[in-house]
Amino acid sequence: MHTPERRGTARSAIGSATGTKPISVMRSRRIAAPAHAVYRMLANPECIARAWPGIRRIDSVSHHATHAVVRLVIALAGFPAVPSEGVVSWDGGSEIRFSATHPIDITTRFSLIPDGDRTQLTMAMTIDVAPLMGPLSAFIPHERLAGVIGPELDTTLAQVAHTLEADAATMRSE
């Protein structure tokens, strides 16, 4: 049985206009697929959208060698779905990052560590609701919000693993 690695809450990685600390959550999972296959999947914004249940819609605005500008509708941590625009960037093999600043300041990073024909995939999210909530963000219980975000990350990692492992099984049987 798989037990995801769990780390952290309330680590400041994004500056907040209201003085409240952003919420950071990290999850990790070992996937039975080589790093190049995991990376190829996650470097495609449409594939990220299919794997991440919170993304309701994603459209590519522009696509470049090392990044893409995307518009998306995303629902996180029990908040209603909101439209956002951000950048998905990739480094060429070990990290893919999504960042947006409006209406929620969010950074999500997928880090890949190759392990033979498997990959250790870590998904880390830092979210600052202050741009959306203003001074009311000081009253949002960080631990509770992190407790909602964590399972969303676990679900995303499980979906990535399921998709890649199913693809690998199909290729082996052909």
Explain what this protein looks like in three dimensions.
This protein is of the alpha+beta class and 174 residues long. The chain has one domain: 2-Layer Sandwich (Alpha-D-Glucose-1,6-Bisphosphate, Chain A, domain 4). The protein has 4 helices and 8 strands. Mean pLDDT is 83; it is low at 6-16.
Architecture blueprint of SSEs:
Elements: E1 5-7, E2 23-31, H1 35-42, H2 45-51, E3 55-63, E4 67-74, E5 82-90, E6 95-100, E7 105-115, E8 118-128, H3 130-133, H4 142-173
Keyword list:
174 residues; alpha+beta; Alpha-D-Glucose-1,6-Bisphosphate, Chain A, domain 4; eight-stranded antiparallel beta sheet; 4 helices; 8 strands
Record the strand order, biggest sheet. 1-2-8-7-6-5-4-3
Look at the structure and name the CATH superfamily.
START domain
Radius of gyration: 16 Å
Low-confidence stretches: 6-16
Shape: globular
Q: What name does CATH use for the topology? A: Alpha-D-Glucose-1,6-Bisphosphate, Chain A, domain 4
Largest sheet: 8 strands, antiparallel
Q: For this structure, what is the CATH class?
A: Alpha Beta
DSSP helix count? 4
Q: Helix proportion of residues, in percent?
A: 25-40%
CATH architecture: 2-Layer Sandwich
Give the tally of structural domains: 1
Strand content: 35-45%
Report how far the terminal alpha carbons are from each other.
28 Å
Which class best fits the helix and strand makeup? alpha+beta
The ordered H/E elements are EEHHEEEEEEHH
Instruction: List how many beta strands DSSP finds.
Output: 8
Kindly state the mean pLDDT as a whole number? 83
